[in-house]
Amino acid sequence: MLHIERLTASVGDKTILDGLDLDIAAGEIHAVMGPNGAGKSTLSNVLAGRDGYTTTGTVTFEGGDLLALTPEERAAKGLFLAFQHPVEIPGVGNMYFLHTALNAIRLVRGQPEIGAVDFLALAKEHMARLDMDPAFLSRSVNEGFSGGEKKRNEILQLSLLEPRLAILDETDSGLDIDALRVVGEGVERLRHPERSMLIITHHPRLLEFVRPDRVHVLQAGRIVRTGDHHLARELEAVGYGAAAAR
Amino acid sequence: MSDVVDILVEREYAYGFHADLETELAPKGLDEDVVRLISAKKQEPAWLLEWRLAAFRHFLTLEEPTWPNVHHPPIDYQDMHYWAAPKPKGPAPKSLDEVDPQIRAEFDKLGISLAEQERLSGVAVDAVMDSISVATTFKAKLAEAGVIFCSFSEAVREHPELVRRYLGSVVPFRDNFFAALNSAVFSDGSFCFIPAGVQCPMELSTYFRINAAETGQFERTLIVAEEGASVSYLEGCTAPKRDENQLHAAVVELVALDDASIKYSTVQNWYPGDADGKGGIFNFVTKRGRAGNRATISWTQVETGSAITWKYPSVILQGDDSVGEFYSVAVTTHHQQADTGTKMIHIGRNTTSTILSKGISAGHAQNTYRGLVKVLRSATGARNHTRCDSLLIGPDCGAHTFPYIEVKNDTAQVEHEASTSKVSDDQLFYCRQRGLTEEDATSMIVNGFCREVFDELPMEYAVEAQALMRLTLEGAVG
Ligand SMILES: Nc1ncnc2c1ncn2[C@@H]1O[C@H](COP(=O)(O)OP(=O)(O)OP(=O)(O)O)[C@@H](O)[C@H]1O
Ligand SMILES: [Mg+2]
User: Fold this and answer.
1) Does B246 reside within a domain?
2) Which end of chain A is less enclosed by CB atoms within 10 A, N or C?
3) Domain range holding B340?
4) Mutating which of A42, A100, A143 best tests the B interface, going by the most B Cβ atoms within 10 A?
C-alpha cells in the first residue's frame, strides 16, 4: 500500500525528515510515536502533498509515485489526513464542504454524485455513531468548534470519505475521556482489509481502542525503533531516550 | 499561491458578445442640442426638458471629481454618443410578443429570457438595452395590486405627476458631476411605484445591457414606496467586450415614506476590461434613498465587473426610527479599480444604520472602501455599526479603507471594525486534501468570506451571485 524509502524533507536549510523508511501493507494499522519536533506532522504533510518542503527519496502509494501528485490527486487516490490543527473556514457550511468534498472524490473515482438529500441522511448516520450533534452540519467548517469538536469533525470526514490510507495526526490530543473512546471505537470500526492507517499519537490510551499492528518511534526525522503494540506501553514507562537506545 | 493568482488573472468575460442590431445614434458630442434631441425623441413635456437643460447648464460649471482613489485617462465627454436606441422595426412593442426577436435573442443569450422569467420565476423584469427600455413583463399582475412598474419614459408619459413630484427629490441634479450629467442626458430606466399599504407581490428586476459602441449609458431609476408599502428590487448589468472604455453614469433614487421598506439589490457585472486593463466600463453611479419615519432602506450590492467602479449607495435617515443598511461585496481582479462604500446620514431620532463591506482584490487590482457615517445634532439615539473586511489574493493587489465619521450628537453610538486577511495556504491545503481543486477551493473560501452579504440577497440571486463569483475567480488552471 505505502512504501517509503530514504525520505528526506527540508525547509530552507533545516532538514526535518532525514532518511525515513516505512512500509505499510493493506489492512495494517501502524502507530508512530515520538518526541515533540521529531518530524511527525512533517511526515503527514509531505505524504499529503503540502508544498514548501524539498524532498528526496521515494514514496510509492498503491504502486504509483506519490510525490508526483497534487494534494487533490492524492485525496482522490484515497489518501486522507486528519489534521493535528484543523483549519477554520468562515462562511463555508460544514455540510456543504463535506458534500462537495465527497462528490469531488467520487467524480474522480467514476462514482455517481450523491444528492443533497441522500448525503444529509448519510452524514447524520455517521454523526450518530460518533455521537455528534447534527447541528454541526449547519455551522461553518470548524469555526468556533472546541478542540475536541474539531477532532471529531475530522473523524466524521474520515468515515464519510472512506480512504485507502488514513493518516491521523494526534487526533486523540485534546479529547476528553469519553470522546477518546468514541473516536477510538470509530477508528477501530474503520479497520478494513483494504484500508491502512498511520496513527500519530503521544498517548498509548488510544491504542487500547485501536490495536496497532506495528508501533514505530520517530526521532530526529528517522524511524529509530519498531515493535508491536507493547512498545507503546514501554515508551510510556521509560521515555523516548531510553527506549530508542535499546 | 501563485497558481491562484494565475487562476484569478485568467478569468474570461462570458457576456462579451454584441448583437448587430440596427441602432439609431445621436451624433457624438454633448451640447444643448443633444439634450433637446433626447427630450424630443422621447416626446417629453416641457417641464422635463427645462429640468434637463437646467441640469446641463449646471453640469457645465462643474469639474470631474478627483478625490476617488482611482486612476484613468481623461474622459472626453465630446467623443461619445449620448443616445443609442435599437432601431424599432415598427411601432413600439405593446407586449412581450411584439418585442423584436433579435433583441429577445440577445437577452436570451444573457440567460434572461423575458418570457421564461415571466412564466417561471414570477419575477417581473424590465430590460434596458442601451438607452431604451425593451419590455416590462408582468404588468397586468402588478397593476392588480396597484403597483406601477414600467420604463422611465413610459412613466413620464403615463404618470407625469408622480415623476414630477419625485424626480430629483433625493438626488438633485446639483448633487455631483455625474448626477448633473445624468440628469441632462438620461435616456431611460425603470420606474416603480408601490401605493400605500401594498406589499409588492413579486420581486421586481431590471436588466441593463450596453450594446452599441462608443456610447454612454445614463439610466435613471426611481422607486417610490408610499406609507407602509414594501418592495424588493434587483438590477443586473452586462456589456460587450470592447477595447475602448465606455461610460455608465446612472442615478437611482429611492423614496421610502413612513413605515415603508425598500430592498434594493444589485448584481453588477459590466465588462471589466481585459487582462492588461484595456477597455471596460467606467461605472460612475449615484444611488441614494430617503427614509421616512420607521422606514427601512437596504442596499445589497455584488460588484464584480467594470474597469472602474465609483458608487456610494446612501441612505438619508430622515424619519425617526428609520433604518439604513448597506451590504456589499466588491471583487476586483486584473487592473480593475473600485472605490465604493456608502453614506449613512442620520437626521431623525433613534435611527439605525448597518454597514457590512467585503472587498476582494486579486491581480493588480485596487479595492477601496469609502464610507461616511454622519450623525446630525437632531439624531438623538442614533446607532451605527460598520464592518469592513478585505481579502487579498496574491501579492500585487491592494485594499484601502477610508471610514469617515462625523458625529454631532453625543448620544450616538458609532462602531467601526475592519480586518484584512488573505486566502491562507492552510485553508487551501485543507480543502485540497479533501479532494477539491485549487480553483474550487479558492472559490469556496471566497464565497464563504462573502456569505453574510449573499445571505441578504433574494434567494434566487444569492445562487446567481455565487455562480458569478465562481466565474469571476475562474479561469484555466495553470
Ligand atoms: N516550515 C517550517 N520551517 C522551519 N521549521 C519547520 C517547519 N515546519 C516544521 N519545522 C520544524 O521541524 C521540526 C518538526 O516539526 P513537526 O511539526 O513535524 O514535529 P512533530 O513531530 O509533529 O511535533 P509535535 O509532536 O509537537 O506535533 C520542528 O522542529 C519544527 O519546528
Ligand atoms: Mg505534530
Assistant:
1) yes
2) C
3) 2-472
4) A100
